[in-house]
Amino acid sequence: MNNKSTFLLLILLMLIFNSCQNKNEKYVCMPCDLECDELTFSEAGICPHCQMELVKKSDLTPEKELIVNEINIQNGSGAFLIEGGVGNEHKKIKVFYHKPKNYSPTSRVLIVVPGAGRNGDSYRGAWIEKSEKYELLILSPMYFEDEYGFGDYHLGGLIKNLNLKSSVTYVENTNIAKLNEEQFSFEVNSKSDEWIFNDFDRIFDSVKKSLNSTQSKYDIFGHSAGGHILHRLTLFHKNSKARKILASNPSFYTLPSFEYNFPFGLKDSPIKQESLQQAFKKELVVFLGELDNENETGGTFLRSKSADKQGVHRLERGKFFFNNAKELAEEMGYEFNWKIFIVPKVGHDYRKMGTAAGDYLYSETEQ
User: What DSSP string runs through 22-52?
Assistant: First the structure.
């Protein structure tokens, strides 16, 4: 075989190889928490289910390749890693994002705080439709459960060294967790720089710098455990860049009253009564599901002597929390900017609550 024949043969083999490679290439949509997350396609294009642009499966960056504190946000969905805050620098927070097609530096920013499942990817996915509709940048931080326990997450790091496992029993075939308050013990963490409330401003500032955003504030929505975090952020975190805070469907509340022991009230907590004046000025919305009542079996529901004083289901407890705060503000003569909103025909469902929250915050008839 002469040189010319050898060269032509090599060209032919390369064409055959590339053709096989292209046929074997798989395309997927970015994770959107719908059924199409499990599908693969043989050609590029648009996903027929969620209408997102398909990408090469081989181009998706695995988590192990994400570099801590390197923020490179592209159009569509993705994730980045940042280190934990003060006292938690050895830990990592994975932030799932969705950047809409029509994003601009003036686009609003929404942080979505997940429930006890810590499934930031699913919460981010539930907001993709509203992200595209309202041109929102969605950021959903995932705190790994093996690094951030109940006190670190639900209670925002306000307490530590708690003996929750030995003081809680679970009622079989129900969503009820019973807390024995006589056995329950913990230490109050008065170091405010270690509370996770600080992380949200830090995430926002890092993303703002990366994308040259002109926004000076962000909105924040949290459901279930996320609702735990956000109503406590309102009470305990003095300086926050959050504009509107939607605390949705937590199991129980820290009441803004010094008559109740912490964490069910502010007695022996790390703040003073004067702090309530600033807390009541914030734009907190107690965002509740109408059907998150005595018939709801979703999520874990805490029962205890102190918790039950707030009510016997989440809807009742949310109303109690809001009314208690309103009465206290009136007694003290403080400005009161909190609101309560009840979503009709929705229970403990983060997708439906998120959909309602998106329209509440960003529709033309914004509340």
Answer: HHH--EEEPP-SSGGGG--BSS-SB-TTT-P
Kindly report the backbone phi and psi dihedral angles of residue 185, in degrees, each rounded to the nearest multiple of 5, phi listed first: -140, 155
Q: For the stretch 63-92, what's the b/e string if a residue is b when 16 or more beta carbons lie within 10 angstroms of its beta carbon?
A: eeeeeeeebebeebbbbbbbebbeebeeeb
- Nearest partner of 213 among 134, 137, 128, judged by Cα: 137
Q: How many Cβ atoms sit within 10 Å of the Cβ of residue 61?
A: 12
Give dist(CA 24, CA 137) in Å, integer. 34
Residues 6+ apart with CB under 8 A from 343: 287, 288, 289, 290, 352, 353, 356
Report the alpha-carbon distance of residue 41 to residue 57 in Å, rounded. 9
3-state secondary structure of 53: strand
Task: State the Rg of the chain over Cα.
Answer: 24
Range 41-50 average pLDDT: 71
Q: Compute the distance between CA of residue 331 and CA of residue 329 in angstroms, rounded to an integer.
A: 5
CB atoms within 10 A of CB 173: 7
Residue 42's SS3 state is: coil
Q: Is 207 helix (H, G, I), strand (E, B) or coil?
A: helix
- Dihedral, CA of residue 56, residue 69, residue 192 and residue 204, to nearest 10: -60
202 closest CA partner among 68, 85, 81: 85
pLDDT in tens, 69-115: 999 999 999 999 999 999 999 999 999 999 999 999 999 999 999 99
* CA atoms of 340 and 319, how far apart (whole Å): 8
How many residues are there in the chain? 367
CB 269 within 8 A of CB 229: no
**Residue 151 CB coordination number (10 Å):** 19
Distance CA(154)–CA(280), nearest Å, equals 21
- Report yes or no: 251 and 263 within 8 Å, Cβ to Cβ: no
- Let me know if 176 is exposed, middle or buried by CB neighbors in 10 A (0-12, 13-18, 19+): middle
CA 360, distance to chain mean position in Å, is: 17
